Amino acid sequence: MKQPPPLFFLLILLSATIASAATTPTVSPTPSPTSSPTPPTTKAPSSSSSPLDPEQIKTLRSLHIPTTRDPCIQPSPRNATICDNSKPLRHLISLHLSNCSSDLFLSSAALKSLSSLRSLSFTDCPVSPVRFPSQLSLSLTSFSCIRSLRRLSGVWLSRFVNLTDLTVSYTPVKASGLYVILGHMHQLKTLTISHANLSGSLPRHLNPDLTHVDLSDNKLKGKIPTSLTLLEDLKFLNLSSNGLDGEIPTELGNMISLKNLSLASNSFSGSIPSSFSAIPGLVHVDLSNNQLNGSIPKFLSELKGLKVLNLENNQLNGVLPFNASFIKRLAVLKVGGNSNLCYNHSVLSSKLKLGVARCDKNGFPIVASPPKESSADSESDYGDDDAADTSNKKEKHHGPSKVVLGFAIGISSIVFLIIFLILIAKCCR
Ligand SMILES: *[C@@H]1O[C@H](CO)[C@@H](O)[C@H](O)[C@H]1NC(C)=O
Ligand SMILES: *[C@@H]1O[C@H](CO)[C@@H](O)[C@H](O)[C@H]1NC(C)=O
Ligand SMILES: *[C@@H]1O[C@H](CO)[C@@H](O)[C@H](O)[C@H]1NC(C)=O
Ligand SMILES: *[C@@H]1O[C@H](CO)[C@@H](O)[C@H](O)[C@H]1NC(C)=O
Ligand SMILES: *[C@@H]1O[C@H](CO)[C@@H](O)[C@H](O)[C@H]1NC(C)=O
Ligand SMILES: *[C@@H]1O[C@H](CO)[C@@H](O)[C@H](O)[C@H]1NC(C)=O
Ligand SMILES: *[C@@H]1O[C@H](CO)[C@@H](O)[C@H](O)[C@H]1NC(C)=O
Ligand SMILES: *[C@@H]1O[C@H](CO)[C@@H](O)[C@H](O)[C@H]1NC(C)=O
Ligand SMILES: *[C@@H]1O[C@H](CO)[C@@H](O)[C@H](O)[C@H]1NC(C)=O
């Protein structure tokens, strides 16, 4: 007769906790949607500014951009528009189309009305790429296309001759070479054509004002031309995941502004040129997944700003020329996958987990031997360090899962208790 009350109490407790857990997330989001629409309506358009060109308002409507609110007030609907300040009518200078519906299409009348644009960008907007009126093509200084416009041709892009910024990403580009696209773009400063299935070789001439070049994940072939090494203002160069080959040219050291460099996942061979030491500001160097050979040059450790160094999966050999204080300074160091590379045990601890073997007296890697008996002292040395290290990592990485585990154990013991009490209650009836 005394069993029902605790069971009842427990069930109430359990349902209360479940209810509170279920209600808390649903309660918190509700205030934000109700509060956010209010500020825009209170923001009245300033009476002094002139209205947007009615032709362009019509065009915005045809592009499914809401115009009930003045599109010239910042931030505009979906951040899609920026206007100039001209009178009596304002004009659009920037238009960003994103998440377009599949029935959207660009009419020539719409494009004609947009010739005031300096910047045009598409993100997730699969409209068909129609021919742009030449006035619009010439007026654009910035063009961006990310997962949009289905597919582009080099000739189509080449008509934007006044661009300073060009971005095409996750959109196939068909061109017999980059020179077709860039041939007449003499103002270009930043160039991104990535994940675009672009073929051909790197052009023999590039605009010397370029500061940013990302041509990653394409089908580019051939060697790095000297035109590239002449870019003294270039800060960022990403040529990763292409079919480029040959040696890394010594002249790369002439690119004195370079900060981030990736030549990863190509077929570059030969050694890492010593001219790298002439580039003082290098922060991020990724040469992984190539066929580079020779030893790792010591000067890399003298680059004061270096944060990320990835040399993994090459054929580099010899003794790793880095000490612990240099390695500690880096955010990322990857040297694994170089089977003839090794580290000096009197300089570096095996706890660093560099993914390379320890060197013998002559600077050759000690090949790890599976049988327990051979080279007993080095084996035990490795074993101890491994055990210490993995336990450390486990403590660091699996902190939250312990909480989850504890919670699960708590819940299941409550459930067991309830079942137990129910059984007892049934028994006693
Ligand atoms: C619009 O742009 C502003 C400033 O760039 C940004 O803070 C805001 O999140 C953007 N809003 C939307 C809906 O993208
Ligand atoms: C586009 O749609 C996705 C999902 O429908 C949404 O997460 C994203 O915020 C949208 N982006 C813009 C810029 O409206
Ligand atoms: C763009 O380029 C053309 C031809 O190279 C030139 O005539 C024009 O002045 C440039 N600038 C603008 C804003 O159209
Ligand atoms: C990528 O380019 C190759 C030719 O280099 C072509 O056969 C293939 O269809 C292209 N893929 C896409 C998605 O355009
Ligand atoms: C280069 O591009 C690839 C693919 O687009 C990207 O994963 C990588 O982080 C980039 N590297 C650098 C140094 O920016
Ligand atoms: C350059 O590399 C650094 C270090 O990895 C990174 O923080 C920074 O975002 C990179 N810059 C660009 C433009 O990707
Ligand atoms: C590196 O590889 C090249 C061929 O790609 C070869 O000519 C050269 O002798 C190799 N150098 C070393 C140090 O192994
Ligand atoms: C580690 O290497 C750097 C660069 O080679 C050097 O400047 C520094 O003195 C070395 N530190 C130690 C503790 O040997
Ligand atoms: C390892 O470092 C010690 C101390 O700096 C040095 O005497 C020894 O020659 C080095 N061994 C190799 C194989 O480089």
TrEMBL record:
<feature type="region of interest" description="Disordered">
    <location>
        <begin position="368"/>
        <end position="398"/>
    </location>
</feature>
<dbReference type="GO" id="GO:0016020">
    <property type="term" value="C:membrane"/>
</dbReference>
<keyword id="KW-1133">Transmembrane helix</keyword>
<dbReference type="Pfam" id="PF00560">
    <property type="entry name" value="LRR_1"/>
</dbReference>
<dbReference type="InterPro" id="IPR032675">
    <property type="entry name" value="LRR_dom_sf"/>
</dbReference>
<keyword id="KW-0677">Repeat</keyword>
<feature type="compositionally biased region" description="Acidic residues">
    <location>
        <begin position="376"/>
        <end position="388"/>
    </location>
</feature>
<dbReference type="InterPro" id="IPR053038">
    <property type="entry name" value="RLP_Defense"/>
</dbReference>
<keyword id="KW-0433">Leucine-rich repeat</keyword>
<feature type="compositionally biased region" description="Pro residues">
    <location>
        <begin position="28"/>
        <end position="42"/>
    </location>
</feature>
<comment type="similarity">
    <text>Belongs to the RLP family.</text>
</comment>
<dbReference type="Pfam" id="PF13855">
    <property type="entry name" value="LRR_8"/>
</dbReference>
<protein>
    <recommendedName>
        <fullName>Receptor-like protein 51</fullName>
    </recommendedName>
</protein>
<dbReference type="InterPro" id="IPR001611">
    <property type="entry name" value="Leu-rich_rpt"/>
</dbReference>
<feature type="signal peptide">
    <location>
        <begin position="1"/>
        <end position="21"/>
    </location>
</feature>
<keyword id="KW-0732">Signal</keyword>
<keyword id="KW-0325">Glycoprotein</keyword>
<feature type="transmembrane region" description="Helical">
    <location>
        <begin position="403"/>
        <end position="425"/>
    </location>
</feature>
<keyword id="KW-0472">Membrane</keyword>
<keyword id="KW-0812">Transmembrane</keyword>
<feature type="region of interest" description="Disordered">
    <location>
        <begin position="23"/>
        <end position="55"/>
    </location>
</feature>
